[in-house]
Amino acid sequence: MALNSLGREIPESYAGRKLVPYGDPYSITPSGSVAARRLRRVNPGASKLLSSLREAIEASGLKDGMTIATHHSLRNGDFLLNRLVAEIADMGIRGIWIASSSVHPVHAEIIPHIKSGVVAGFHCGVNGLIGEMASRGELSCPIVVRTHGGRARAIMEGSVQVDVAFIAAPCCDEYGNMNGYSGPSACGSLGYAQTDALHAACVVAVTDNLVPFPVVPVSIPQTLVDYVVTVDRLGDPAKIVSTTTRITTDPVGLQIASFASQVIEASGLLKDGFSFQTGSGGISLAVSDKVRNAMRRGNIKGSFGCGGITGYFVEMLEEGLFGALMDVQCFDQEAVKSIAKNRAHQEIGADMYANPFNAGAVVNRLDCVILGATEVDTSFNVNVNTESNGYLLHNTGGHSDTAAGAKLSIIVAPSIRGRLPIVRDRVTTVTTPGETIGVVVTERGIAVNDRHPELKEELIRRKLPVKEIGELQREICRVTGTPQPLQFEDQVVAVIEYRDGSIIDAVRRVKE
User: Where found (predicted)?
Assistant: First the structure.
């Protein structure tokens, strides 16, 4: 075992790979060049169209021990990964690694195939029952959790080699041009699949909406697609929404949103050119609503909103409060409709969005990002991967990427969740390092990282409830009591990879 700079004990190697301990957000300098894929040739008159998913798997050359990838733009409505793994199992292929952009609760259907050895491990975050069972020691499958930007980096540098990318294409022609804007499974942006299409050894477009050539507009072009196959249904777009898309009416949430919006106004960042990202939860949308009103009052026009886009951001774009939306993933049907018709609603890939090893990611241009947390500690480290029971239940997403890139990252969370304090001496799992977190906002007060002394002084001047984070923790624990520390076995069930490829923490089997 080795200790990283945060004092977290990580294994020296995991799943056959030597690990690099986390140092700081900028300690690793990239070397080498972008991973290449082989050249290919398709002659005039040749057809890419295959008759079934099985024929596509056979044509791809998939063999035991190889790595496949899908994207998660349909989120909990995705049908493709389950169907794909079942077909692979029927063909007798084993030891497959899954390097999808995310695995959701709907994918619990593949658990029997993990137990049987068809699936060997995951080069991605897992949400739901798979992570819970791994945390209990009921599944033996290595899991490497990556950020959205970190996944793009890993594929582009070749540390994760995707042998076959199966891209769910809601609108596709027989030559492989595709977009996500129309069809029964329309999901909007295909941003997470763009890296796969560029770098996978073989690319298969899977569609339930084959249209005449050419698809217009093109999100992923024919030049990157080897085969096209049709299925009856890619998924249920109604299940793209995984959290509330309505502003919270809870008094605690509204108080948090009020404090957070006042932090943004006090920061001096809310001016012409303001750039902003927030999530789709009720508190985040309440913050957005208050920022929206402040922009109206001040006649402020922002430059862009980014990340996973909701209908709320679409309304701000249409109102002229932002000049553009940079969209790696649509979070609801309003966003799907918008990206299909509004040229200022720009589809971007995960590389452009958040990869730390390129000539400049969009997250580097963010003024402010609103993020959630399951836990925060007195060093401002944030946990979003594991719950209070220690189970691995959530992916990292763009949490660490945006915190590192934005001028000001704000954590919004209720001080007590499930009778447990949100602020701890030490988080169960470090997802995002405290040195990239600016402010923690709860309904009981605001804690400002020492990295932002001017902001702290301004908040105090405005008579907002600024507290030292240790003081905030003690206040909360006087209500909840101090929780007993969780007990873990030595067995590592997953490693949490920081966006640069270093290991920021390890998740261990929970001692029952």
Answer: Cytoplasm
